[in-house]
């Protein structure tokens, strides 16, 4: 959009829910007072309109990841990407979604009791994912990096304290299954993220963000279960074959 200053806030959010994060950052009400232009809102709140439009332009320029051949990546590079892209996304979005879900449950929970269930499920998922990612970042991924460096230098890999890489991998995959099931429940309770007729802009933003979160989680899990973990197991097996040779 060329003239963001004259854009209607509510329409911007309706067209691209990611803009809601910008308005929330500047404490601009995009829900009940969404019929104002960006310029009007900034003037009323004495906010630097250049900063707001710059942030909006950055958000509107976001492009989804497509067509990347992750299978060609070295496992340590893929692990770094997962942390930088997907772990960071999960960590950043958890407090945003928790705030939106808390507000929706408080305002619309009586008419839509499923919102309370969705908020509870998401809070459970947030706690589990936070611990899950820490285990990967502190235990599994460093060992994968260690194996890659050892292979590159022609050195043997030091045996991990967890016995074999298949042990943490099995645990991570089990936890992936749990979170996949939890989000299937959220998807069902929300009627596939369908906003009811009485839903406001906050309702639409929350459901759109939940859907995006689930889609990112699917890619996140795919990269680990189907690419990173098999590569790590193959790498460990290669070291095992080297040490077993006469």
Automatic annotation (TrEMBL):
Species per Swiss-Prot/TrEMBL record: Chitinophaga pollutisoli
Pfam family, one: Hemerythrin
Localization in the cell: Cytoplasm
Transmembrane segments: none
Protein name (record): Iron-sulfur cluster repair di-iron protein
UniProt cross-references to Gene3D superfamilies, sorted A to Z: nmb1532 protein domain like (1.20.120.520)
Superkingdom of the organism of origin: Bacteria
Database matches in PANTHER family: IRON-SULFUR CLUSTER REPAIR PROTEIN YTFE
Keyword list, A-Z: Cytoplasm, Iron, Metal-binding
Gene: ric
Main location, first listed in the record: cytoplasm
Domain Hemerythrin-like: 79-232
Entry-linked InterPro entries: Hemerythrin-like (IPR012312), RIC_family (IPR019903)
